[in-house]
């Protein structure tokens, strides 16, 4: 079994969706790829994939090897590509980290968990089905609830507001930091940092 990690960023493919709230997972992966100096290339697993090392281990050694994967399918059918990329690289579910948008978390906040429910997130539901387990890690980037009576599906498929766009780099940075910390120090240490408001 390799010591490799697989970090997956959820979203919908194509420029039409690139700035949507639903695509925040893929935006975080772009930030992680920039940190590793890796470029995404299409892969036979129906994902765009980049490989590198992420973060620095306590003591200063380079962080673990990681495969960054952006499924090329639509959000609701993310499971097939995620399962395929994990199998291709021989990464067990407990070393798969899925980065996704989360309505139940205020915009700008990041929460982390392993396993648990999907909270109505169809992308996660499909991944759980394809992996055959809920026991993978999730980095949940808060996008907040829609205003008024706006339909949640419409809300996540809209671009971030002008005000949010000013703050978005901080959210992407925090979520990328959270991924790095899970890989280098473990989930509990990362939860301790990101679940406690300074």
Give a structural overview.
By secondary structure, the protein is α/β, with parallel strands linked by helices. It has a single domain, classed as Rossmann fold (3-Layer(aba) Sandwich). Helix content is 35%, strand content 20%. Strands 2-3-4-1-5-7-6 form a seven-stranded mixed β-sheet, sandwiched between helices. Strand 2 and strand 3 form a beta hairpin. Monomer. It comes from Flavimobilis marinus. One of its GO terms (molecular function) is tRNA binding.
Number of domains: 1
Q: What's the helix count?
A: 6
- CATH-defined fold name: Rossmann fold
* Coarse structural class: alpha/beta
- Give the C-level CATH assignment: Alpha Beta
Order of helices and strands: EHEEEHEEHEHHH
What number is the mean pLDDT? 95
- What distance separates the N and C termini? 38 Å
List the helices and strands and how they pair.
Elements: E1 5-9, H1 24-36, E2 41-43, E3 47-53, E4 65-71, H2 79-88, E5 96-102, E6 110-114, H3 122-131, E7 137-142, H4 152-156, H5 162-185, H6 187-194
Parallel strand pairs: 1-4, 1-5, 5-7
Antiparallel strand pairs: 2-3, 3-4, 6-7
Helix pairs in contact: 1-5, 2-3, 5-6
